[in-house]
Amino acid sequence: MSGGTGVLEPLPRGFFERPVVELAAALLGQRLVRGRGRARRVARIVETEAYGGQGVDPSAHGFAGPTERCRVMFGPAGRAYVYATQGRCVCMNVSTEGDGRGRAVLIRAAEPLEGVALMRARRLARLGEGPTRRLLEGGGDHELLRGPGKLCVALDVTRADDGADVTAAGDGPYLAAGEPVARVLWTPRVGLNPRSASVGWRWRAFDPDSRAVSATRGAGRASRGPRPRRCPAG
DNA sequence: CTCACGATCAGCT
DNA sequence: GCTGATCGTGAGG
User: Residues with Cβ < 8 Å from A39, sequence gap 6 or more?
Assistant: First the structure.
């Protein structure tokens, strides 16, 4: 049960060389793989957000151009951009387009497929007593990767993975082919500055059939905020 | 150097 | 649904 032996072939570089909003949808259903052997963990991506780059998207880290933190987004497509927010949580993005404009897709949530016990152990190691601990101990596996910070905890994604090539199988995080999702819904992205001009853009894509879609304060679930659409709009 | 601000989360009400 | 925690990051002096 733990540690499947099947080879998970990485997605090719060309998969990531496409418009960022299109990639946000294309990543739904794909596999996020971390670790080798008994430490291997595999998850099915169910929620993403597109971040437009320099001069395009005021909510994107790369809006004003490259900085030391976000330089990976300005490099080739198919690299992990991993950053810390609130000083405590880390989030993982995948660079796209590769045209030096600083665009990337944030991976917000996933469903655990393999290495679930290790994911759970990683999450529990950071939790005190409380409802979340009881939920995870009681088999609430859909909660393991439900949110960009939680996902990185469960998969041991850290700042050390910033710049990692997600098209290369190995110990580091990489992307492998899954199955396309049946439906894709779009809403505004979560947690943005409400004064930002791009706050209403429907660049958050998710699989409405998944229980693992995140429900962060504010604009999280499909049931709140503007009604999800089938196509992105500005 | 200082300072303001989060692409969040866990725990409560 | 609401709030405090807690610090990396980038901009400015």
Answer: A115, A118
**Residue A38 gets which letter from DSSP?**
G
Contact between the CB of A104 and strand B at under 7 Å: yes
Q: What is the pTM of this model?
A: 0.93
pLDDT of A234 higher than 60: no
Measured distance CA(A157)–CA(A90) in Å, rounded:
8
Mean pLDDT value across residues A207-231 = 69
DSSP letters for A164-217? -BTTS-SSS-EEE-----S--EEEPPSS--TTSTTTT---EEE-TT-TT----T
* Residues 178-207 on chain A lying near strand B, CB distance under 7 A: 189-193
Does the CB of A130 fall within 7 Å of any strand B atom?
yes
